[in-house]
Specification:
Largest sheet: 2 strands, antiparallel
Protein name: DUF2905 domain-containing protein
Strand order of the largest sheet: 1-2
Keywords: Membrane, Transmembrane, Transmembrane helix
Number of strands: 2
Number of domains: 2
Shape: elongated
Organism: Desulforamulus ruminis (strain ATCC 23193 / DSM 2154 / NCIMB 8452 / DL) (Desulfotomaculum ruminis)
Mean pLDDT: 85
Pfam families: DUF2905
Length: 75
């Protein structure tokens, strides 16, 4: 592998590890009671139509991941 491909290889390894970590978090998130059913999550059910948008859950997970990534990736 030439020197010009080394940054691409490192980036692919980094994103691969991030996907593995995110997959593990998603597997464990289903076992946390209340996650995904927080007040502020949008849930509409009418007849055969169901719409669910986890707004507050998404915001909390975004804040949590931002803090974690800032702690580990700070240069």
């Amino acid at each position: 592998m030439g020197p010009s491909l080394a940054p691409l290889a490192k980036m692919l390894i980094f994103f691969g590890l991030m996907l593995v970590i995110l997959g593990g978090i998603l597997l464990l998130a289903g076992k946390i009671p209340g996650l995904g059913r927080l007040p502020g999550d949008i849930f509409v059910q009418k007849g055969n139509f169901t719409f669910y948008f986890p707004l507050v859950t998404s915001i909390l997970l975004s804040l949590l991941l931002t803090v974690i990534l800032n702690l580990f990736l700070r240069r």
